[in-house]
Amino acid sequence: DAGVTQSPTHLIKTRGQQVTLRCSPKSGHDTVSWYQQALGQGPQFIFQYYEEEERQRGNFPDRFSGHQFPNYSSELNVNALLLGDSALYLCASSFPGLGNEQYFGPGTRLTVT
Amino acid sequence: KQEVTQIPAALSVPEGENLVLNCSFTDSAIYNLQWFRQDPGKGLTSLLLIQSSQREQTSGRLNASLDKSSGRSTLYIAASQPGDSATYLCAVTNQAGTALIFGKGTTLSVSS
């Protein structure tokens, strides 16, 4: 049973560029959430997707956008990258009927120079 | 606004010792509470999930308790091992059951 997978593992971008991160949920899960984790901090909630719609959004600017596909996989897009966007980006999947326990992927390390 | 605090920020113990990690949250209206383990530079591994109606959960050497009324949870680790060295994160799910709100974690080091 494959867990949550994310790609790429690492990414280096320049300020002002755009980036797309990808996530495939655990088998049987239909809900995908994205989190940003800065060094030494706990993850911060960006948004959650369910049935291809953004269900809830955290306190992040519109530069952060997402998408969920019919097969439940998801993308996180960040435009006009800032140095402060450097972080570990984590994807989590869940299924409401299973108590909403969230399972996390290995993350994508984004470095903005 | 929900805030989650974990104490201590770091903890060093010798192998074999039993230990307790603490987590507190400001709003008792939660859907559930999860404890996670994170190794350096890696993703999060779910350790225990406690639904808001439950008081505790156990898995192997781990036991987590939840007291919603006081806004507290503890993670008890029995007979610690060097392999337990990691950062332990506590997170509560908002009442809608969507977003996890995390503490900053407790970094545990177990020496042999």
In short:
Chain A is mainly beta and 113 residues long. Chain A has no helices and eleven strands.
List the helices and strands and how they pair.
The complex is a heterodimer of chains A (113) and B (112).
Chain A (H helix, E strand, L loop, with lengths): L4 E3 L2 E4 L5 E6 L6 E7 L6 E7 L2 E5 L6 E5 L5 E5 L8 E8 L8 E2 L3 E5 L1
Parallel strand pairs in A: 2-11
Antiparallel strand pairs in A: 1-3, 3-8, 4-5, 4-9, 5-6, 7-8, 9-10, 9-11
Chain B lengths: L3 E4 L2 E5 L4 E7 L4 E9 L5 E8 L4 E4 L2 E6 L4 E6 L8 E9 L5 E3 L3 E6 L1
Parallel strand pairs in B: 2-11
Antiparallel strand pairs in B: 1-3, 3-8, 4-5, 4-9, 6-7, 7-8, 9-10, 9-11
Count of helix runs of chain A:
0
Strand proportion of chain A: over 45%
User: What is the rounded Rg of chain A?
Assistant: 13 Å
Assembly status? heterodimer
Largest interface: which pair?
A: A-B, 28 and 26 residues
Secondary structure: helix percent of chain A: under 10%
Uncertain stretches of 5 or more adjacent residues of chain A: none
Largest sheet of chain B: 6 strands, mixed
Give me the count of strands of chain A. Answer: 11
Output the structural class of chain B: mainly beta
Q: Any low-confidence stretches of chain B, pLDDT <50, length ≥5?
A: none
**What is the chain-wise order of helices and strands of chain A?**
EEEEEEEEEEE
What does this protein look like?
The complex is a heterodimer of chains A (113) and B (112). Chain A has strands spanning 5-7, 10-13, 19-24, 31-37, 44-50, 53-57, 64-68, 74-78, 87-94, 103-104, 108-112. With 113 residues, chain A is mostly beta strands. In chain A, strands 2, 4, 5, 6, 9, 10 and 11 form a 7-stranded mixed beta sheet that branches. Chain A has a 4-stranded antiparallel beta sheet with strand order 1-3-8-7, with no helix packed on it. Chain A is globular and about 40 Å long. By secondary structure, chain B is mainly β. Helix content of chain B is 0%, strand content 60%. Chain B has strands spanning 4-7, 10-14, 19-25, 30-38, 44-51, 56-59, 62-67, 72-77, 86-94, 100-102, 106-111. In chain B, strands 2, 4, 5, 9, 10 and 11 form a 6-stranded mixed beta sheet that branches. In chain B, strands 1-3-8-7-6 form a 5-stranded antiparallel beta sheet, with no helix packed on it. The radius of gyration of chain B is 13 Å and the shape is globular. At the A-B interface, β5, β9 and β10 of A face β4, β5, β9 and β10 of B.
